[in-house]
Amino acid sequence: MGNEKVAKQTIVVKLGTSVLTAGQASLNTAQMVELVRQCAQLKQAGHQVVVVTSGAVAAGRAALGKPCGHSLVEKQMLAAIGQGQLIHLWQNLFALYGITVAQMLLTRADVEDRSRYLTARDTLTQLLAFDVVPIINENDAVATAEIKVGDNDNLSAMVAILANADKLLLLTDQAGLFTADPRSNPDAALINEVHCITDELKSLAGGSGTALGTGGMATKLQAADIATRAGVEVLIARGSTPNIIAEALSGKAPSTTFVCFKAPVDGRKRWLLAGPKSSGRITCDEGAVTALCDKGASLLAKGIVALSGEFAVGDLVSLCDVNGREFAKGLCRFNHQELEQLKGVHSREFAALLGYIPSNVVLHRDDMVLLGNEAADKPYKTQKIS
Ligand code: GLU
């Protein structure tokens, strides 16, 4: 970070398996030492660092020394073998710089449930207050399909929200997101700044037939989408580039930066972004979309044109316009059976239809977060790199 005066920040550094193994079958200690040195440098400059680490399965596979890891349960076994080794290694490497680390293993269930989310947040905050580096991974050994985040990109976005981070740095085996596969297309340009995650970008990152999908760019875009809405700037950069953490954060190394939303998002709404999965979808008419997006209103049954999915009272649902664009999400005050009867109806008719009035509004403003990023004529900028 040189001699520049940089405000103290909380930075989440996400290290993918490809970075930790340097593309080989087992953890590459030399590479990890180098990354620890860079994290220590960040801390020396006064920043707080949180590490989201992959590599448990890779470490477990190397330790077991037998071919295995195809089924989910085998991968869970490998993670159970490898996680201990992984944290032990991190512990020893950070100790070289006199830094204490802590292990936190999370699953989706820990961020979905509001009280568990708050507990995880408080633990994380406390660790940072005591100058400890939290080392976080998914609790693979116990995570069933329903409660699994599934990839550490999305996990790192949740962690960035939990930690109230300023920046999330996703280190991978590519310099960022490209307009085409740089290995086969000489015209490929690095997308160095993203203002709005459009369908075009999503197809560049994950559409089948684009080699970019192999770098796990689709999940990185999902992570960027979640984190930027909560006010976290997200960067993708190549983990093996010398001094990459400082160089990417200061804008000197090639990288893709996702500019964060400026609107402050309060604690509860941050949880809505990080935590629960959506159980249903409510399509709203144009009047309702305008009232919600521009006038600070709550959602009334009258503005609902259709719904799908099965949800209970208090579940998270997505709100979409008639073109299917998701513009908000929030906690619904009705279950889907009730709402099926009430869609398009004025609240004064609720009692006659249901026999009771649980609430006059379907989704209250306070329980809702707007997602709208209809940004920019220019959703992203590119840069030619040699
Ligand atoms: N949690 C997995 C592991 O530690 C990695 C998942 C991922 O890299 O997305 O091996």
From TrEMBL:
<keyword id="KW-0808">Transferase</keyword>
<comment type="pathway">
    <text>Amino-acid biosynthesis; L-proline biosynthesis; L-glutamate 5-semialdehyde from L-glutamate: step 1/2.</text>
</comment>
<dbReference type="InterPro" id="IPR011529">
    <property type="entry name" value="Glu_5kinase"/>
</dbReference>
<dbReference type="InterPro" id="IPR001057">
    <property type="entry name" value="Glu/AcGlu_kinase"/>
</dbReference>
<keyword id="KW-0028">Amino-acid biosynthesis</keyword>
<keyword id="KW-0067">ATP-binding</keyword>
<dbReference type="InterPro" id="IPR001048">
    <property type="entry name" value="Asp/Glu/Uridylate_kinase"/>
</dbReference>
<dbReference type="InterPro" id="IPR019797">
    <property type="entry name" value="Glutamate_5-kinase_CS"/>
</dbReference>
<dbReference type="Pfam" id="PF01472">
    <property type="entry name" value="PUA"/>
</dbReference>
<dbReference type="InterPro" id="IPR015947">
    <property type="entry name" value="PUA-like_sf"/>
</dbReference>
<keyword id="KW-0963">Cytoplasm</keyword>
<feature type="binding site">
    <location>
        <position position="54"/>
    </location>
    <ligand>
        <name>substrate</name>
    </ligand>
</feature>
<comment type="similarity">
    <text>Belongs to the glutamate 5-kinase family.</text>
</comment>
<keyword id="KW-0547">Nucleotide-binding</keyword>
<dbReference type="Pfam" id="PF00696">
    <property type="entry name" value="AA_kinase"/>
</dbReference>
<dbReference type="InterPro" id="IPR036393">
    <property type="entry name" value="AceGlu_kinase-like_sf"/>
</dbReference>
<feature type="binding site">
    <location>
        <begin position="214"/>
        <end position="220"/>
    </location>
    <ligand>
        <name>ATP</name>
    </ligand>
</feature>
<feature type="binding site">
    <location>
        <position position="152"/>
    </location>
    <ligand>
        <name>substrate</name>
    </ligand>
</feature>
<protein>
    <recommendedName>
        <fullName>Glutamate 5-kinase</fullName>
        <ecNumber>2.7.2.11</ecNumber>
    </recommendedName>
</protein>
<keyword id="KW-0418">Kinase</keyword>
<feature type="binding site">
    <location>
        <position position="14"/>
    </location>
    <ligand>
        <name>ATP</name>
    </ligand>
</feature>
<feature type="domain" description="PUA">
    <location>
        <begin position="280"/>
        <end position="352"/>
    </location>
</feature>
<dbReference type="InterPro" id="IPR005715">
    <property type="entry name" value="Glu_5kinase/COase_Synthase"/>
</dbReference>
<dbReference type="InterPro" id="IPR036974">
    <property type="entry name" value="PUA_sf"/>
</dbReference>
<feature type="binding site">
    <location>
        <position position="140"/>
    </location>
    <ligand>
        <name>substrate</name>
    </ligand>
</feature>
<feature type="binding site">
    <location>
        <begin position="172"/>
        <end position="173"/>
    </location>
    <ligand>
        <name>ATP</name>
    </ligand>
</feature>
<dbReference type="GO" id="GO:0004349">
    <property type="term" value="F:glutamate 5-kinase activity"/>
</dbReference>
<dbReference type="InterPro" id="IPR002478">
    <property type="entry name" value="PUA"/>
</dbReference>
<comment type="function">
    <text>Catalyzes the transfer of a phosphate group to glutamate to form L-glutamate 5-phosphate.</text>
</comment>
<dbReference type="InterPro" id="IPR041739">
    <property type="entry name" value="G5K_ProB"/>
</dbReference>
<keyword id="KW-0641">Proline biosynthesis</keyword>
